[in-house]
Specification:
With 318 residues, the protein is mostly helical. The protein contains ten helices and no strands.
Length: 318
């Protein structure tokens, strides 16, 4: 007979299965709306370089992502690992497991992105080397490489890097979306508050993600559709898993504390890296920020701070 977990709580709160199932479709709709908004704005002409709507929306979403990682993911992870009476003794001896796991997630995400970039550069260099073996004319009857060809190769590398960044962002977002979906699927207390917070988060995270996808300028529209569908289905998938395991899940059980604490910390690390390195830093180094007027720059910064501030405030309730 399995040993009873002394830390497991008696589940007194009633589990509303129909509402949890409804949450699958609510978050699917909100996620679809968030990812579709940049696409619709582009079709309506608001993606023009002088428009402030797209960059502000992206930066607002970036602020939401950073606050989600630090407030809604890292905080609960630290809380889970602080329950030392229900965890192995090592958690009493070392109290920074959440931070350590988040750092590991940041470093791993960076390494994967770095390897992907190196692979893309290696492939481009091989393509250039093969092209160099072919006789080429510079227009004067002489053979050689033109500056335009070198510029073209450089632009290909930049485009490839944008796409790698987009894939890395999608991977990080999808990973944490499944995790928060499971958390919502098994939630009993404060379920409605958590659903509202996640709806807000999913919309603006989807807006930021799809804006980055649009900027990557993929050659085929199917890539955009693929990113959209992947994002729209990951959180509902997590909720469905949570609904399926809710009868055997106890949030204060030893296993649940270890799994939730670890997954929340991993998500925090991925979101912090993605928000800072794949959205915020590239944007503020781009012409979309540097070539704008002072007031437009201020507006963009305010949008980012507002997104982070609102999502941090929501942390008081969910």
């Amino acid at each position: 007979m399995a040993e009873e977990d002394p830390c497991a709580l008696v589940l007194e709160e009633e589990y509303d299965r129909p509402l949890h199932i409804g949450a699958i479709f609510i978050l699917m709709g909100v996620s679809l709306l968030g990812t579709a908004t940049p696409w619709l704005l582009t079709r309506m002409g608001y993606s023009h370089k002088d428009s402030i709507i797209m960059p502000c929306g992206k930066l607002f979403g970036a602020g939401v992502i950073i606050a989600t990682g630090l407030v809604h993911m890292l905080g609960p992870s630290m809380e889970a690992f602080s329950n030392t009476d229900c965890l192995p003794a090592v958690f009493s001896d070392y109290e920074a497991f959440s931070g350590m796991i988040a750092v590991l997630a940041i470093m791993t995400t960076h390494l994967l992105q770095l390897l992907a970039r190196e692979h893309a550069e290696h492939n481009q260099k091989n393509a250039n080397s093969k092209k160099a073996l072919l006789p080429q004319s510079n227009g004067n009857g002489n053979h050689g490489h033109s500056e335009s060809e070198e510029g073209h190769s450089h632009s290909l590398l930049l485009a490839s890097e944008k796409r790698i960044t987009t894939f890395a962002l999608e991977f990080g977002v999808a990973t944490h979306s499944v995790i928060i979906g499971i958390a919502l699927g098994v939630a009993r207390e404060n379920f409605k508050e958590l659903l509202i917070a996640l709806s807000f988060h999913q919309f603006f995270e989807g807006l930021a993600l799809m804006t980055v996808v649009m900027e990557a300028e993929f050659s085929h529209v199917m890539y955009r559709i693929m990113f959209m569908l992947f994002y729209v289905t990951t959180t509902p998938l997590g909720i469905a898993i949570g609904v399926g395991i809710n009868d055997s899940y106890n949030e204060n059980g030893r296993s649940a504390l270890l799994v939730n604490g670890s997954l929340d910390a991993i998500s925090a690390g991925i979101l912090i890296y993605d928000g800072l390195c794949n959205i915020i830093q590239p944007h503020f180094m781009s012409s979309g920020y540097r070539d704008r007027s002072v007031w437009v720059k201020v507006a963009q910064v305010v949008c980012m701070w507002t997104g982070a501030g609102i999502m941090s405030f929501i942390g008081k309730y969910a």
